[in-house]
Every structure is written in C-alpha cells, then in structure tokens.
Amino acid sequence: QVQLQESGPGLVKPSQTLSLTCTVSGASISSGNHYWSWIRQPPGKGLEWIGYIYYSGSAYYNSSLKSRLAISVDTSKNQFSLNLTSVTAADTAMYYCARISGRAAALDYWGQGTLVTVSS
Amino acid sequence: EVVLTQSPGTLSLSPGERATLSCRASQTLSTRNLAWYQQKPGQAPRLLIYGASSRATGIPDRFSGSGSGTDFTLTISRLEPEDFAVYYCQQYGSSLWTFGQGTKVEIK
Predict the structure, then answer these.
(1) Mean pLDDT of B5-12
(2) Average pLDDT rounded to a whole number, residues A16-32
(3) Beta strands B63-76 and B19-29: pairing type?
(4) Distance between CA A59 and CA B33 in Å, rounded?
(5) Is B34:B81 a contact under the CB 8 Å cutoff?
(6) What are B43-60's pLDDT values in tens digits?
(7) Given an 8 Å threshold on Cβ–Cβ distance, is A106 in contact with B98?
(8) Which residue of A has its CA nearest to B1?
(9) How confident is the model at residue B95 (pLDDT cuts 50, 70, 90)?
C-alpha cells in the first residue's frame, strides 16, 4: 500500500523559509514510474497546485510561486522536499504531498497533509 | 494558464437524489488530463475519476464522469450519506496543473 507522509515545522515566521519533506513508502521514487507533487489549501479555501518533480530532479512549478520555490528529491531516502522562501501570511495553508498516477494526469495517492502557519 | 470554473458553487440535495456537477475549462482539454476529487472535512482529497471518465480504484459505480473539449460533468446517480462533501475538478496541460474552485454538495 502506497503511503505518503508530510513532515516539517507547523509554524514559520514571516520572511523566513518554509521547508517540508514528504516520505514515501510502498513505492520507489527512483523507479521512475511516477512524478511526485505538492499541493496546498489555505484554511476554508480551495486547492492550489504548487509543483511536481521526477526522480531525476526535473521539476515544474506554479508560475505564481516559481521565484520563491524549490522542490528537490532524495532517492536514497525515498523522499522529496519543498522549500518556499520569503513566506507571508498568505502562505498559511494545509500542505499535501501526492503521487501522480502513471495512467493519467491525476493524483492517486495523497498524504494526510500538514498545517503550516506563518506568524510572528 | 487554463482556468477551470465549477458550477454550481453549492448543490443542496437529499439522499437518493441525482447530483450533476459541472466543470468548464477556458481552453480545450485532452480528456486524459481531466480528473475529479472528493474532499471531506479534515481529510485529504480522494481521487474519484481520471481521464474524464475512468473511475479510480475502489470508487463506487454511482460516480461517473463525462465530457470533452471544454465541458465536463461529474454525476452521482443516487446520493448516499457519505457523498456529501466538496468536489474539485483538475486539469493538466503544458506541464502545469490547475484546480477548479470546488462544488459543495450539502444535505437539503
């Protein structure tokens, strides 16, 4: 059974960097069969795609976040990570990691999510 | 960037009724790149439909997806109590993903 688990600080100060890691079990990132994605959801609002990455390190980002965003992968640990710099209160959200299906452009497995609050 | 517009914003129905949710794209989409998700309070979204019309693993057959081009529909043939939730459509194109704003299906 494929499982994803987000981890990282729940509170980040404004102007600092938000760093999260997604640990994958039940599937191997290095198999190259899937891409791996980050999505976020501000409290009470809808879903926003952040970006995705392949095991090779090739990454694609939401244009609205691109200047502050870096997604990386560590195949030895079967993890991928998100770094978002210069955060503001607008970055407060539930952050989800997810796997992109090999059959279609859809997110077939999701982590439970981690709430990150940006506040001093 | 493709914009997805979902309607209605809220759908008030009773258990046993039929639900029809719409997702309209600002550009023509490949059907392979359109998906639907269900999200309940406090939970991560769950994939329902991929490729516009294929049910994901374990999804009951009362859920069906249809459409092509710019107009797509999610139909729930007979609402069960556990189906009251928020539903999102999602598309992929040119290495970018977008979600619709969601339709809430609530108990009337």
Answers:
(1) 97
(2) 96
(3) antiparallel
(4) 19
(5) no
(6) 999 999 999 999 999 999
(7) no
(8) A63
(9) confident
> Is B2 in contact with B98 (CB distance < 8 Å)?
yes
**Nearest C-alpha in A relative to B87:** A46
Distance CA A71, CA A5 (A): 16
Backbone conformation region of residue B58, classed left if phi is above 0, alpha if psi is from -120 to 50, else beta: left
Q: Of the candidates A70, A102, A77, A82, which has an alpha carbon nearest to the alpha carbon of residue A23?
A: A77
Q: Quick one: DSSP state of residue A54? A: -
Q: One-letter amino acid identity for B19?
A: A
Tell whether A96 is within 8 A of chain B (Cβ). yes
Q: How far apart are CA A27 and CA A18, in angstroms?
A: 26
The pLDDT score that the predictor gives to residue A103 is 82
Q: Report residue B13 as tokens.
A: 């129905």
How do beta strands B10-13 and B103-107 pair?
A: parallel
